[in-house]
Amino acid sequence: MTFSLQDPTRGIPVLEAGVSQLVSKLPFLGGNLIWTTHPDSTKVTGEIHPPIEATWNTYPMLKVKYHAGKYKSMSYGRGQCDVISYDHLYREEFLPLPFEIVLAETSPVLRFQANVLEDGIILCASFHHNVIDGKGMQTVMEALAACCRNLTNVQQNELPTDPISEAVCRRRLSAAASPTLDAFVVRRGKNCPIPTAPEQGLQAPITRLLVLSGEKVIQLKRMCNAFVQNEARGEVRSSEVNRPTPALSSNDIISALMWLCVRRSQVRSDPRVLERVKSTFSFPADARMIIPQDLRSTYIGNCVVSATVESPFSIEDGIKSSSATVSAPDEINLSLIVSLALTIRSKFKSMDRKHVRNFISSIGTGNHAMLTAGNADFALSNLRHMGFYELNFGPVIGRLASIDMPDPRMKNQAWVLPDRHPGHNGRSPWEIRITLDPMVMECSLHYAKAFGEASVEATDTDAVHWVASSTKLVTTVAVMQCVERGLLDLDADIANVLPEWENPRILTGFDENDNPTFRPATKPITLRRMLTHSSGMAYFFMDPLMTRYYELQGKPPVLQTLFQFQFLLFEPGERWMYSPGIDWAGRAVERVTSMKFGEYLQRYVFDVVSVKDATFHLDQREDLRARKVKAWVRTDQGLEEEKNPLFQDPIAEDFGGGGLYTTVNEMLKICHGILTEKLLRPETVKEMFQPQLENVLGLDQPHDYSLASRNAIWNAVPNDVLVDFGIGGLVNTSRLPGRREAHSLTWSGKPNCYWWIDIKKGVAGVYLSQLLPTGDQSAIELLNEFERWVYSHLDDLEGLAKQSVDISSR
Question: Are residues 475 and 529 in the same domain?
Fold first, then answer.
């Protein structure tokens, strides 16, 4: 729970006084849950005992901790280095209790920690879910708000509950069981089958915040209910929709939509999921609403009654019509959503007093057949109706700025967070906190589109392209990983790794016999300069001197020139000129890792983000060769098929500057791995998107280049926008209205392949084609339209964190 404060330190005395009063009025909140074994049975049960001094001293009711940085923007964008991100907040330094406390014989019921930042306070609460549930925490926070408003003498009747009312509700719950329980307790840990602490490593579950348009949710609900009504009238033929049916709620629709999307993503990440016939979904219900005559709405205790349903159709049927679009669902997808929503609605309506009684009895008797939430394929809990944002903590602290539950331990779980703007007739955005395996998460949130004229060639998003110089992005990732591991140094003389570049020479011209003349360079070649095309190296077509040297050498095969032309055209750092520096950087990775470059990429890049269709060698992947799209040339007469291969095949080297074959979806995974910081550390990613050039000469006069060359270098960045070069791509230094933010990266590949990554918006775009000549104006115009379309639709996705979108064309 975050409070935005101009002077956060003023809020601490208020919280200290408020928490003190809270415990004095509701003392059981400061107690300990103690697990004991009954002498007449082996049953382990929990009871709340008053805190002992040792526990109280070790775990005070409120801890205060000061942190550097700010909280702002943490929910809706990538956290910068000085911003605390909710996605990574679930760490012990921010929490009042250690993770392993849940395994102890004695566990505090509730504790708070006030994390003081430069612009506010993040108040983290750790509570034992065997004792308190989400609705109970709302009551606790309502009571705390009252205590903060009246710091010296809050009255019991100002609080939403009291100890006597709590005891009455507990007795009624116990009496509801059959047979009656000695105490309303649960077996230790059985109803919360989650890890004690978050898992670590690249494959550990991750948590993200989704924000969906409230208007779109309402629109989808109307479509679903209309579908049901039409089915009832026989206007829609569907064997999966039963009638008559009740009206579907927004919660039914969101639950069904998330269930379907997550299950499809699980299948994409691991096809073995199809071995199971049906999918299961779990959701909690509130016993306070089911038996209101027994339970007050403000009862703090755990009243979660879980239910699990099975999909009415097979998993395979659920993915057949899978389409990744942001447009309205077609009739098939709509019928799937409706079918799942009706299943959820039917189960919810069946949860009556008898269901609650059986559920409580199953807890007491140790029969956990009903407690299956942890075994479901996906679970969703809806807290949207809880009024956290309406709470007023007094003149100093005010109201909540944000509330979140970024718990990465509960895999395949989502929480609909409280409504920020209650009373807007459901039109306010739906915030959904979701935790998934990284492979599932990356399969869940992207848009892919492929197109090609039917008269020419059909194209699909799994079509294989030679991505040419777009390979440089992948190579840059590998190089920066080696920098992170201390194997390479961005600013050291690269001759330490590549002795070929010891004492480099600069080409100055030719003598009367056409022999080249050189002078020694005065500055070293560094990895940073190689990655930013400012090392002094250059492709032979970038400069007349270089072109003449190439011609005098008999025009050798282009690939030979990359490593044979071991001289410079200018002093390192003096200017920008497109070069084979990244090809050499890939070779540096080979030297320091003693691995072939392709082998390194497979192990440390591709496997990390589940890239399966990428290779330097089509002769080793005939399945990819079979999916390789044709190449085309635009002439005055139109498009003509290019019969000659665009790139040498087969080939011995792993060319990091331009040798990769892959698909648009696989390139998207690389971009997504950068955005989500799965491939590189946050500080490394930030560095890549910063201007790096010592001198922008070479990028300061776009019109010095031909139109095709401008398009290949600037891509979709207008020529009047000042640019620099980052580590891995061109950087626009100012925002492009209606499009990417400032300090986005972009680059291209010879057959009109393009990509961009907007780190501030969390958007990546990939455009692949196999069209010559490079820098095609029609391709650039289409790329521009694609980018504008993407950003115009971000409003529909409203702040969706770490989004990625891609497009593939012929």
Answer: yes
Q: Mark whether 474 and 493 lie in a shared domain.
A: yes
User: Quick check: is 193 in a domain?
Assistant: no
Per-residue model confidence as pLDDT tens digits over 583-605: 999 999 999 999 999 999 999 99
As a whole number of angstroms, the distance between CA 567 and CA 562 comes to: 11
Q: Pick from 160, 190, 174: which is nearest to 291 by CA?
A: 174
Q: Which of 366-370, 540-544, 615-619, 735-739 has the lowest mean pLDDT?
A: 366-370
CA distance 643 to 673: 35
With respect to residue 198, please indicate whether it lies within any of the assigned structural domains. Answer: no
Q: Where does residue 606 rank: exposed (0-12), middle (13-18), buried (19+ CB within 10 A)?
A: buried
pLDDT in tens, 395-423: 999 999 889 988 888 889 999 999 988 87
On whether both 423 and 486 belong to a single domain, the answer is no
Residue 420 tokens read as 């920020």
Tell me the C-alpha distance between 37 and 224, whole Å. 51
Asked whether 328 and 222 are in contact (CB, 8 A), the reply is: no
Instruction: From the candidates 70, 578, 610, 686, give the one annotated as an active-site residue.
Output: 578
Structure confidence at residue 370 (pLDDT): 45
From the candidates 238, 469, 470, 808, which is the catalytic residue? 469
The reply to whether 618 falls in a domain is: yes
Catalytic residue among 221, 472, 669, 678: 472
- 659 vs 562: CA distance, rounded Å: 12
* Element at 617 (helix H, strand E): none
Does one domain contain both 679 and 705? yes
578 is catalytic: yes
Residue 202 has pLDDT above 50, yes or no: yes
| Residue 455 among the catalytic residues | no
750 in the same domain as 649: yes
Number of domains making up the chain: 3
Pair 540, 416 in one domain: no
Specify whether 663 is located in the same domain as 789: yes
Is residue 126 annotated as a catalytic residue, yes or no? no
CA distances from 290 to 245, 252, 286, 310, 513 (A): 21, 17, 7, 22, 97
Helices (H) and strands (E) in the chain, counts: 23, 30
722: tokens are 């000042």
Tell me if 70 is assigned to some domain.
yes
- CATH code, domain carrying 212: 3.30.559.10
Looking at 412, 447, 482, which one is the last position of a domain? 447
What range does the domain containing 242 cover? 206-447
